[in-house]
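lol ok so funny story. i was supposed to be doing the assay writeup but got distracted and ended up predicting the structure for this chain instead. priorities right. anyway since i did it might as well share w the group, maybe its usefull for someone
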Amino acid sequence: MSTTAPLTVLCLASYEKGQDFLRQAKKDGARVLLLTSLSLQHKAHWPVESIDEIFYMPDDNKQWNRQDVINAVSYLARTQVIDRIVPLDDFDLEMAASLREHLRVPGMGETTTRYFRDKLASRMKARDAGLTIPDFVHVLNHGRIAAFIERVAPPWVLKPRSSAGSIGIKKVDSADQLWDLISALGDNQSNYLLERYIAGDIYHVDSIVYENQVLWAIASGYGRPPMDVSHQGGVFTTRVVERGSPIEQALFDKNRRVLSGLGLVRGVSHTEYIVAREDGRVYFLETAARVGGAHIADLVEQSAGINLWAEWARVELAGGKTPYTPPVPRNDYGGLLVSLARQQHPDTSAYTDPEIVWRMNREHHVGFVVAAPEYSRVQELLESLTQRVARDFGAALPPRERPTD
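and the output, tada:
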């Protein structure tokens, strides 16, 4: 009687996240290996009962040396057959792709990964696919940059190609300011792009994709643009959009075209769009082949009953060889609020609304997820909580230039 060996999944985590992925992979019978940063060895809280072996890589502020990782994992592969390589953080996507290419492990390779990590690559691919995107130029050839700022009126947005979220993004109001910023970048200029600033409302669609099909998605809208919160401070909020509404359908239609055009075969994605005030069109902004950050996964789970980390694990293990069906979702509405707090250990015990279904437990932070069957109730709660949190706890820090834990 023959037996099939369990799949071995190597998870990369330079930052602490993805615990539910590890738990689900183990629950479904995989052998789970974790490669993480040495600096997290005595700080991170991993579900050790769901991990067969943990390996630590020396790091410089969570940054790994690519060749050292390739060498280390290749050495590991002398005695272990690695079937899947999964990056649990956005900053690990390119490393995972390099390892897959080097070891010839199935999964997203380096070219496709670029479309989900490199904002310039994703825009060029989206443009070729006929998608609506903000006008942009690579910060490379100064003649082309000059032609762009002559043709496209300010303000513009200067963006690093490979950072996550709003890290390092700058709004630029004049040509003189722009050239000063470009000059200050020195040899790092080619790692940036410049694009037209579009005023409007920003949305995100979080999706589960299997064999090139979006099998499930949920659309949400930010209260204030994340870039504004990052640069100006204040309370970050997002909420599930009204189901069946025209904006939900427009976002879902655009999302299917984006993920198909960029070539996501299977996995999860977090993709952002802006609905322009000027013309009402839906513009593609950026995407990532990962679970959304800033506790968006908690919003999704509390409103729809779907754990994106766990479903990502199920998709990876299915691997296109067995059928995958997402769970039947719950159709509550949800809202997420996160704010810096001036208190080290903020006390939120006075916040007693029964719709609060999740609370953040982190120093100098306050966060809630609210959930209710009615869209209007979530809207009302978020507006009230935003005012209260700003008054009781509000604090601000300079915008980040580098990722943090």
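DSSP finds twelve helices and 16 strands in the chain. The mean pLDDT is 94.
back to the writeup now i swear
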